[in-house]
Amino acid sequence: MTVALTASMIARRGLELVLVALIGVVFMALVVARVVPAVTGVPTFVVSGGSMDPIIRIGSVVIDEPVAVGKLAVGEVVSLKVGPQQAVFTHRITRIVERDGSVWIETKGDANRTIDPSLVPASAVIGRVAFSVPLLGYVVQMLGTLSGLGLLLMLGVLTLVGASALDLVEEEIRDARRRRLPVRARLGESWTEPGALG
C-alpha cells in the first residue's frame, strides 16, 4: 500500500468519524431540547452566564426535574423564573424562609461572592437541576436559529463531500497500481522470464 493511499484512507476515516460525531451531537441536542421537556414537562435551559462555575459552565444544558415547594432544601441547585421579564437563572439555595404564610428562598451562584440581592418566592422555582450536559447548549442554540441550522447542515455536507472525494482518490490510486502491474501478476499467475524453464 502506498503512502498516498494510506494517508487518503486515514483522512477519509477521520472525516467519516467527524460526520458520525456531528450527527450524534445534533441528535443528542434535539433529544435534550425537545424530547426531555415533552416527557418531564419541565423545559431545559442553556446556561449563558458563569455564575455556577465550575459545577455548571457557560454553554451547558440544564435539565430540571419537577419539585414541590415543600421538598426544596438548602444546597440544592434550582432554576428560577423571576422579574418583569421572567428571566430564568440557575442558582443554589442558601436559605429557606417562611414569610407571610408562604415559602421564600435565598439563592447564590457558586461563582458569585455574594448572595442574590433579594429573596424569591419558592413558587418561582421551575425545577431542581437533575443534571447538566456541558457544551451541548451551543448546539441547542444553533439549532434554534436559521443561520445556526444552516451552518450545521453545511458542516455535514462538506464532511460528506470530503469523505466522498477521498474515496474517489483512493480508487484512482488503486486503479493506477493495477494498470502498472503485468497482466499475469494481476491475474494471480507467477511471472517467469521466457525461456527460464528450459
- The overall average pLDDT, rounded, is 87
In DSSP terms (H or I, runs of 4 or more residues), the helix count works out at 4
Report the portion of residues in β strands.
15-25%
Radius of gyration: 29 Å
Order of helices and strands: HEEEEEEEHHH
**Oligomer designation:** single chain
End-to-end gap: 35 Å
CATH fold category name of the domain at 43-136: Umud Fragment, subunit A
Do you know the CATH architecture of the domain at 43-136?
Ribbon
- Look at the helices and sheets and give the structural class: alpha+beta
Main sheet attributes: strand count, strand direction, barrel closure: 7 strands, antiparallel
Unreliable runs, pLDDT <50, ≥5 residues?
none
Please give the share of residues in helix.
40-55%
CATH class of the domain at 43-136: Mainly Beta
CATH superfamily of the domain at 43-136: Umud Fragment, subunit A
Descriptive notes:
It is a single chain. This protein is of the alpha+beta class and about 200 residues long. It has a domain at about 45-135: Umud Fragment, subunit A (Ribbon). It has 4 helices and 7 strands. It has helices at about 5-40, 135-145, 145-180, 185, and strands spanning about 45, 60-65, 75-80, 85-100, 100-110, 120, 125-135. Strands 1-2-7-3-4-5-6 form a 7-stranded antiparallel beta sheet. Helix 1 packs across helix 2 (about 135-145), helix 1 packs antiparallel against helix 3 and helix 2 packs across helix 3 (about 145-180). The longest helix has about 40 residues, at about 5-40. The two termini are about 35 Å apart. The mean pLDDT is about 85.
